[in-house]
Structures are given as C-alpha cells and as structure tokens.
C-alpha cells in the first residue's frame, strides 16, 4: 500500500485539476493553481525527481474531471507456465499490457498489447482481477490507476517474439519468476491467474 503522504498529494493534485477545469472565477483559479503547485512539489519531493517530470505525467491535467487511469494486463498460461515480456524501459519482466486506449474495450486493449509486446494473437476470455494500484504493494506512482487483469487464450501457433517496447518474451512457472517490473505487476497478480485458471477461484477479485 502506498505512502499516506503520496495518497494525500495525489488527491490534492486531482482536486486542483478538476477545480481548474470547472472554475470561472479568476481568484478561484489562482487558489486551485496554488494547490496544484503545492501538490506537484510534494510529489516531486516524495519521488525525488524534478517537478517538470511530475507535471508531464498527467497529460490531461485541468482538462476535465480527474479520474484514475486504466491499466490492462493479459495472462496467457500454457503447460503450467505464464507468458511474460521484458520491458526495454527497466529491463524487468511483466504481463503484457499497458494503458487502455480510448475507443477500445478493455479486452480489445489486452489483445492489442499482447500482440504488440509478445507477437501473439490471443483472445481475452475472463476478467480475473481488478486492483487499485495504490492499495497494493506495487512501486509507488504519482498517477492513480485501476488495473484490470484478463486470462487469455492463444489464437495462433506463432512463436513469441519481442516488440518495440520489449526485449525478450518467455514462459515461466509460478515458482521461478524472473525479476518483475513491480510498477506493472507483482507476484500475487500472477498467482491469481494460475488460481483462476485452475478453477481454485471462481470469481474475479476486486481490491
């Protein structure tokens, strides 16, 4: 679970973003902008990064009602092993996935991401977990996310291959996982996929 001060700073940033979008009074705009500046300074201090990086993370700041982003991930299990991709950005491994694009359903986004990152055509068959990133032991993030995890089934016999954002692709047993990209996925996400696939869990988890 994320640091309480990180949660407070993110909430202040969201309030300022929504306020700047809707307010009409110039004095209120100044107040909301000051709240935004304070929140961004707090986030920069907590992350130990320049403020300019924090400002660049929220591309839709003050452009509407502030809401969490959506991250989708696909779990393809074959012969007791799960498909993982190695991210070029940090050299660590994760389930294929990423930001959900506007205009596609969550499952369509998973299908696209798996093809782009692992070279495989799959179908997204079942939703097995919905998580609030801030409530779980992922690496801290200045943004707020809902994470949707789907079980997938292969639709072709192509060999896996890395994409533009990935450097390697492989299948791993649950007891021999590689170094995970913990801002994207944690061990419990993978173990939940196996439990759901094996019928040990009948309903998607929401936490």
Strand content: 25-35%
Radius of gyration: 19 Å
Low-confidence stretches: none
> Helix coverage percent of residues?
25-40%
The profile of the biggest β sheet is: 8 strands, mixed
Structural class: alpha+beta
Question: So what's the overall shape?
Answer: elongated
Number of strands: 8
- Secondary-structure element order, N to C: HHHEEEEHEEEHE
Write the layout of secondary structure elements.
Blueprint: H1 4-22, H2 26-47, H3 51-57, E1 69-78, E2 81-87, E3 93-94, E4 97-99, H4 106-118, E5 122-132, E6 145-154, E7 166-172, H5 187-197, E8 205-206
Parallel strand pairs: 1-6, 5-8
Antiparallel strand pairs: 1-2, 1-4, 2-3, 2-7, 5-6
Write up what this structure looks like.
- By secondary structure, the chain is of the alpha+beta class.
- It has helices at 4-22, 26-47, 51-57, 106-118, 187-197; strands at residues 69-78, 81-87, 93-94, 97-99, 122-132, 145-154, 166-172, 205-206.
- Strands 1, 2, 3, 4, 5, 6, 7 and 8 form an eight-stranded mixed sheet that branches.
- Strand 2 and strand 3 form a beta hairpin.
- Helix 1 packs antiparallel against helix 2 (26-47) and helix 2 (26-47) packs across helix 3 (51-57).
- It is elongated, with a radius of gyration of 19 Å.
- The model has no long low-confidence stretch (mean pLDDT 88).
Features:
207 residues, elongated, alpha+beta, eight-stranded mixed β-sheet, single chain
Write a brief structural summary.
The protein contains five helices and eight strands; from the N terminus they run αααββββαβββαβ. With 207 residues, the chain is α+β, with helices and mostly antiparallel strands.
């Amino acid at each position: 679970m994320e640091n309480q001060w990180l949660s407070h700073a993110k909430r202040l940033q969201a309030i300022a973003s929504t306020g700047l979008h809707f307010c009409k009074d110039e004095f209120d705009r100044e107040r909301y902008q000051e709240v935004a500046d304070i929140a961004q300074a707090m986030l920069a201090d907590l992350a130990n990064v320049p403020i300019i990086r924090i400002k660049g993370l929220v591309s839709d700041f003050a452009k509407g009602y502030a809401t969490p982003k959506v991250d989708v991930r696909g779990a393809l299990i074959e012969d007791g092993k799960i498909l993982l991709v190695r991210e070029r950005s940090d050299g660590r491994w994760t389930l294929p996935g990423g930001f959900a694009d506007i205009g596609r359903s969550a499952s369509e986004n998973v299908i696209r991401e798996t093809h782009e990152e692992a070279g495989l055509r799959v179908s997204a068959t079942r939703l097995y977990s919905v998580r609030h990133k801030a409530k779980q032991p992922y690496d801290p993030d200045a943004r707020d996310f809902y994470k949707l995890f789907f079980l997938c089934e292969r639709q072709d016999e192509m060999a896996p291959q890395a994409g533009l954002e990935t450097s390697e692709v492989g299948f791993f047993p649950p007891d021999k996982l590689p170094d995970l990209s913990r801002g994207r996925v944690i061990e419990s996400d993978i173990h939940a996929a196996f439990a759901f696939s094996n019928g040990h869990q009948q309903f998607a988890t929401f936490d």
